[in-house]
Amino acid sequence: MNDSSGVRLRALADELDAAVLAVPGVLRIQPRLDVARLARRVADGFAAVRQGVHAPGSRVEVTVGPEATVVSLDVAIARDHSGPVVARAVAETVLLRLAGEGLPEPRVDVRIVAVG
Amino acid sequence: MSGRTVTLERLAHYLDSGRVPYDPAIEDDPENASQLATLARLRLLSGELLADEAAAEPEPDVGWIAGVMERVRQEARSGRDIPLDSAGPAILHMTEGAVRGLIREAGDSVAGAVVISCSLRGDVSVPAAPVRVEVVISALRGQFVPVMADDVREAVTLALLRQTELDVEAVDIVVGDVHLLDVGATS
Fold it and tell me: What is the ipTM of this complex?
């Protein structure tokens, strides 16, 4: 990853972080553990991003590959909101934000890790 | 395991301090946050019981609370990923640990009930597969157990309907024991 693409992706990850936190019902974003990230990539066959560039150090993982851009994040949901509804709102928010970036096909992976 | 597990004593001190200053090692970790929430609920229950003179007589079981907290820690681990209905470029799911956490919270919200353990039986990783939920509770003295069990079943069912897309076939409630509580022994 060269410096400019890394900086750009990090800025994008930070913007997505702020946008997701603004979704009603999202309590917090939690960093996805490295082992969990690896397992998910293997399980879901995200081969399209295998050679991609990655925004390091963010709670929102953004990986851009030749065929796809994958955003992965774990969220905690407020108990007075519907988890599935909030997860869909988060996905829509991310995809909407990515739409204007001119990146390869956007995909989003949202996982609820806590309700509290 | 998250790898960032904190001790029960540290959780108790953090609760004593009013959760100030904010401790991300506790609040941002599903295992630790679940334990903290359970400890807070148990303390609240304990306070209610100790206000009742009749409940203060028999000896409390100090090891019981530690056992409950260990179960909370085990169940808060991520476990299986449970899919939510999604299509196109979005993949949505929730962890089994998150579902267990909300079952526990729903059960604990019923007066006099403490959830000891809960389990999801069925292939939760397959959308629309039927799932049975088993919740083992401890009934605190002074509550009419059959009504309490029905209330726990209703609370858990409603929470699962609201927060998940599981096809819940049944919620089975098992009353494991009848108990008194002294959570002060943990701090």
Answer: 0.82
